[in-house]
Amino acid sequence: MSKQKSAPKKPLRHSLPGFGLTLGYSLVYLSLIVLVPFSALFVKTASGGWGHFWETITAPRVVVSYGVSFGLSFFAALVNGVFGFIGAWVLVRYRFPGRRILDAMVDLPFALPTAVAGIALTAIYAPNDWIGGLLKPVGIKVAFTQLGIFVALTFIGLPFVVRTLQPVIQNLSDDVEEAAACLGAGRWQTFRRVIFPALLPSTLTGVTLAYGRAVGEYGSVVFIAGNLPFKTEITPLLIISKLEQYDYSGAAALGFVMLVVSFFVLLASNALQAWDNKRKGML
Amino acid sequence: MAGASQFPIPQRPDTGRRATAESPVAKVLLVGITLVFFSLFLLLPLFVVFQEAFSKGLGVFLKTFRDPYAQDAIRLTLLVAAITVPLNTVFGLAAAWSLTRFRFSGRSFLITLIDLPLWVSPVIGGLIYILVFGSKGWLGAWLSDHGIRIIFAVPGIVLATVFVTFPFVARGLIPLMQAQGISEEEAALTLGANGWQIFWRVTVPKIKWGLLYGVILCNARAMGEFGAVSVVSGHIRGKTNTMPLHIEILYNEYHFAAAFAVASLLALLALVTLFLKTYSEWRAAEQLKQL
Q: How far apart are alpha carbons A69 and A58 in whole angstroms?
């Protein structure tokens, strides 16, 4: 028994009641909702056999969908990185009428159901409406093209960079900026050499989060995408079409691929946060 | 004063602003970019929903909700939220209590596991339940022998919704309860309070705004979830159609005004959610400052 050994090392452990009850309940709940169903995904992926798995995930139509899902998510996350950075800076540092409302509205893509966002964006960018009508004479088609998917993915990723950066900009101490100014740095130089390096890890974290969300997004994309095979099909849509054909192991195989991608995005985000914490520790 | 001549201090032109502020031109430009980007991606979609909803007049808008299928969809959405939100609230409280009041190995793994639905595609959230309960899934044969329907029925919709929304309450509470610490709970314990008394009289008043914040987000997502629910629903009108799925059907049948009418109801919910979220976030921060 290591009872006497563990007592001083973990002082919190037995001070309050409810440990067994709350942890036990959480674990049972998570097992039923997450672990058992996910193990079904792994078993189903394996049950089709390696040949079937490889054939499914490298089918030409599926490979094109990877390009659409993973590629366009990347560009959307990049755009959110740039505009989210500017937006977070403006919301924290400047005072202008309507700032508070704009700040609250940043979370709209979280709060607005994706199907609602999907049909609204389609209405805006369809060839004869709103912005779509303005772009039509110029020869730019947005809805029902890859550009439309890009727009939808930018919409749903928008909050991540802003919300990750806002507290960091808030906590940026004035001292370093003042020191830079005292040493004769212009504002642009201060930004480039002092502010931007300090905000870079959080910006990248926000971009990673936006990417992770965009990769799996379904609701806001399906309406504006047009879903043309080899052109505007996203990978989650192909999972659904496999399920509709009762090809469970095929759907599981594609789900497995998406899970692996999400896992690497998660790893990247954790690594970025660790890097950021390490740098903060050095300051 | 001799030092001044030896080491000339760099002279900045006097622009009448602080050295740590941008030039007025840059400021206007940055605010302008933000306003344009946010208007284009946030305000315009919201405006379009309401504009399109009333584009055919109030009559068409109201007629949409007299359709029994629309009423069934609204009823189902409310039912799913009424089951999902309490379940996930209890889970969130239990998880937050165990994770912030005790240290144990595997703690950070558990936190990562709670975040999982935010990382995986909602479509996968539906897919995993089909693989377990679907006709060709693990339990498919057994369930059909016993006449139990889960997939293409309400239980499947509830399960998929529970999956995509379970992180919200826990995630709202964990950072707050971590920051608040446990000294007040321990004080109550030494004064002889039992577990339930500590929870209801000490902890709940401390965390109520954070709890509200999580519940609101959970509810918004539960009522608006599309991807996961669409996989398990089967789209049976009047039976397994939630509001977002009803919007999809109306839209695909070119009933645009009706689709946007139902959508405007969910957009209204989103606005109420944003307001309550901002308010409870602010109150939770106030409460934390008082400590």
A: 15
- Which residues of chain A make contact with B162, given a CB cutoff of 8 A? 33
pTM, 2 dp: 0.89
Measured between alpha carbons, how far is B211 from B168 in angstroms, rounded to an integer? 10
Q: By the 8 A CB rule, do A236 and B227 touch?
A: yes
pLDDT tens for each residue of B158-183: 999 999 999 999 998 998 898 888 88
d(C-alpha A236, C-alpha A244), whole Å? 13
Kindly provide the ipTM of the predicted complex, given to two decimals: 0.88
Pick from B112, B138, B271: CB nearest A40: B138
Closest by Cβ to A243, choosing from B95, B231, B267:
B231
Q: Is B135 on the interface with A (CB under 8 A)?
A: yes
